[in-house]
Design goal:
122 residues; alpha+beta; 3-stranded antiparallel β-sheet; 34% helix; globular; metal-binding; FBP C-terminal treble-clef zinc-finger; zinc ion binding; zinc-finger
Length: 122
């Protein structure tokens, strides 16, 4: 197996939640949204300016993927969702224990990543 560059690693989505690695190669859209818009990352649910969120797509598995079918979702352009889920606590949750909130947000992120990987598999 050849080593991957940092850029290749950052553009891969790996879900190891079930004790096995499922992965999808992601492709970022070439265009970005306007920085004047507020946009929510659909994985970590953090809010950013439009230029900090990008549409990422992955080919579907099997015959559908060979026919060019893809699945996409809007994700933090820097793929920093895991760190944000642990460290960026929304204002409405700041009165709760930060460790507990971080754990909940990471669990929710894992669920959304698993849903995306499942959509790629279909």
């Amino acid at each position: 197996m050849d080593p991957m560059t940092e850029q290749q690693v950052r553009r891969s989505l790996v879900d190891c939640a079930k004790g096995e690695a499922d992965s999808a190669a992601l492709r970022a859209a070439e265009s970005r949204m306007s920085a004047r818009r507020s946009v929510v990352c659909l994985l970590c649910r953090s809010t950013h300016s439009g230029d900090a969120v990008s549409l990422f797509t992955a080919r579907r598995a099997g015959a559908a993927g060979r026919n060019g079918d893809t699945v996409g979702t809007y994700v933090c352009a820097d793929l920093g969702c895991a760190a944000r889920a642990r460290t960026e606590i929304p204002p409405w949750l700041r009165d709760r224990d930060p460790v507990e909130v971080g754990e909940e947000r990471v669990a929710e992120l894992r669920e959304r990543v698993a849903e995306f990987v499942d959509a790629v598999r279909r």
